[in-house]
Fold this sequence. Notes:
Layout: H1 17-22, H2 44-51, H3 61-68, H4 70-79, E1 87-90, E2 105-109, E3 123-124, H5 127-141, E4 145-149, E5 153-161, E6 164-165, E7 169-172, H6 186-190, E8 202-204, H7 211-227, E9 233-241, E10 246-252, H8 263-270, H9 275-290, H10 298-301, H11 316-327
Antiparallel strand pairs: 1-4, 2-3, 2-4, 5-6, 5-7, 5-9, 7-8, 9-10
Amino acid sequence: MREAGHTVHLVEATADLPRWFLTHHVDLVFNIAEGVRGEHRESQVPATLELLKVPYTGSNSITLALALDKAKTKQILASEGIPTPAWQLFPSPAATLNPRLEFPLIVKPNREGSSKGIWRESVVGDAASLRRQVERVYEHYRQEVLVEEFIDGMELTAGVLGDQPLPLLEIDFGPCAPSGEFFYSWRMKEFQGDAARGLAPVLHCPARIPAAAATRIQQIALRAHRALGCADVSRTDIRLRADGTPFVLEVNPLPGFSPLDSSFPFMAQAAGMTHPQLIQRIVDLAMARSHHQPAARIRETGSTVQPQEPSRRAGSRRANSFLEALDNGG
């Protein structure tokens, strides 16, 4: 962003975040914060910025809260006719499996990202293994456990930038056979590229599927993006069954942007965009959406973050009251 001519200030998403924004004027926040704690932690920073009327990139607080909850996301997908694997939410390890669900199943924490709580053993083929994994997840994360039918097939991820699908990314887990991990487990994401551990999937972008099938899957990802109310960017994880049916696993409205190991920049690169162009495009989309200034002038005049002296405008008294409430533990 600095290379693009913006003035940038890094602000950590800690409990002091509201105080910082009450004493600094900014044009735009490039939000990559996943929050601190709580069931809907990814919505904390957007909710704070909405309260303070500060424009930011990406989806709003409601979308981020919904998308972090896998079961709620699947309910929305199902209501929109978007295919997603059959599932059941276990509020506790004592819950009984719905007999309509068929093995193999995969066991996940309901409200975690980055494949946390997903291990090699998470795909189960019988009731005893299921019970063991549900208890393990519940013990580690103390939250509802999502159990869904495991779709055996090609792993795909679909990016949406603005309102346009990006080329599909295929993740080939064939080289990972020695590790026994043929899906995105926590170890696979944490150590991706480590061939010695058998954790080096091969990425293909565009995916090696017929153009018509790719277009259909891109449209499903776009429907999922819209169904959850995503803005600017989203990444949808999909499994393509052998019969050609795509199943949406989850939607991530806060994807990673690392040019080294994140999927979204890889897909943008396949679409002909450099990493700086991708970041600037996201800034442009957010600035235009916020009506902060005419979209045609964004590239010429838009600053990402400009710290200034505390505002003395009419809203200062309200801001001071909020600071006093914070100081008093309000």
